[in-house]
Amino acid sequence: SIQSWYLRRAASKRNSLTNKSHSFIHRLVFHSEVSKIILFWSVISFLLNYLETYDDLMFIAKRLGRVSCACLPSLLFLTLRPSPLPKTLYLSLLPIHKWLSRIVVLEGAIHTILYLIYFVRENTMFKTKKATNIWGIVAMIAFTLIAITSLPQVRRISFNTFYITHYIMTWVSVIAVHFHAKPGIGLYTILNISILIAQIGYRFYYSKKTKISVIPISPTLSLVEFPLSSIPKQSNLPGSHVRINNKNGMLKDIYYKLIPLAHPYTVASLPNDPTVKLIIRRGNFPLRSNQDYYITGAFEPKLDFIREQSLFHKLFEPRRLLLTTSPLKYSIDAHRVMIVVGGSGISFGIPLLRILNYNGISARLMWVCKDIKDLNLLNHFRGVQGIECYITGDVDENDIVIDYYEDDKDHRNKVLPVQPPDYGSTIEEEDEIDFTTLGRSYKEAHRKGSSSGSTSSDSFKDHENVNIDISNTCGYNVNNPLSSTSVETNSSSQLHQLPHELISPDAFKNIKISKNVKIFYGRPNLGADHYDWCLQSQCVGPTMRQGHSVCCRDLGEHDVDKSKIWVVAAGPTGLVDHAKQWAIDGGLRYHIESFS
User: Fold this and answer.
1) pLDDT (tens digit, 9 = 90+) per residue, 519-532?
2) What is the pLDDT of residues 241-257, one digit of tens each?
3) How many CB atoms lie within 10 A of CB 452?
4) Pick among 2.60.120.10, 2.40.30.10, 2.40.160.210, 3.30.2020.10: CATH of 203-301
5) CB 560 within 8 A of CB 329
6) Where in the chain are the domains?
7) In whole angstroms, how far apart are CA 6 and each of 1, 3, 12, 309?
8) Global confidence as pTM
9) Nearest alpha carbon to residue 277 among 423, 480, 107
10) Distance between CA atoms of 296 and 317, rounded to whole angstroms?
11) Is the peptide bond before 82 cis (omega within 30 degrees of 0)?
């Protein structure tokens, strides 16, 4: 009957909601990193603040203030950049820093509120005018300003406001807490001041003044270069980054040394290239050729699958090949690597791809960019094999001329120092592009017939929603590359000499790239074909087995160690998140570009 059908449907909905809520709670409790951090610090905070307080409210109020003071050295230590802890990135410590700082602010606020209530009840509000208590109020105001400006909304609106307030109020709180605390906290203050001064000293010691060269690549992208000798602390791994600041007057230079507002850029050249190259998306930071800038760094990257060769290998490996003594020879824990980058994230992908090619690792680089004129960049990195470019913006083929050239044979097998100038890598979310993933399991994608197109998320709303279709048959569909004309012309040296601001948009119409680079329209959709490439199981056609034609996908003869297959992502947050999820769903390992 209708009534029984309705009851069954209602019960089904209730069960569905119950299962979803249980699933959400399970994820929140057992799989959420944030929940684990909150739980850990809540337990530590409770133990430190409540034990041996004898249920005395004023004892608890004093303990809250004392614990927040005691946490300051640890809080500041977590902000050291680069982190002094071995093989630990500054960014990996930020979640701990955030939650510890929230606990410090919360405990300080409760400490203040309890004392104000006590003063009101005892009719002793005049005590708030004592010098020690005024310093406590100043510290609480500093903590409050730090908390307010740390909100994501404030950081997005004005990062400079967040950072400058954060930094200045840190100094204010350290000094104010020192004069407020009773009994004194001299040891904590020494530790706090030492950490803050050490940061300033590091910036002074590892900063160097140099002139840069700026090469316009497209209306929105530029290439910056400067000599390798300009980097005070050179890195031995690909994908390191440097921080750049303007050379100003003496007072401004001191100001920027004290308050470390600098722009981080990924180094797109190799560690042994004589010229450092940075790929930079145009923004508010002015970059002009032949101007003086301060370079700080380089800061080592965290690469989960690449490390320098050990001293044992360098000393005792057979010297039969020149490769064993090359500075580009690394210990690489990977068999195959798929690199997915968006926009200026290519600055991380190119040196990584070059190193992998040199060390004989199968690698593939997918570069998603909005403007086809950005492809001019590849003319400055000749000889790099395995690049696929996906153009997501509107392209009028009448407004561009693509000249394809043949790479020299020498380029195909050697990693040469790449020609000069480049920009670092700032990620502008609104200028760059993401891609979507296939919303079903890989086995299902191999077996079933129709591949479902993905819907575009909020981060894609300003871009085309173009996917790569996945075919289930033996053999697979491929996007057709842009039609090419193989007319080789010399790159315009005049373009490199003109100031960035004076370049006409028409100057970027001629795009010169290698024939080895594949160009596609639209956003890539990671799916079964990419997964087959990772597992070295691309379909080559039907095979006869026991008198029957069997699809190559169903043979099941590929015994692949997935722990040696990596998906590497760099660029906008949406792109990185999708690449990470795709790798996790496929049982592959993943790595995301991180700054130290």
Assistant:
1) 888 888 888 888 88
2) 899 888 777 777 777 67
3) 13
4) 2.40.30.10
5) no
6) 2-202, 203-301, 304-405+507-595
7) 9, 5, 10, 68
8) 0.71
9) 423
10) 35
11) yes
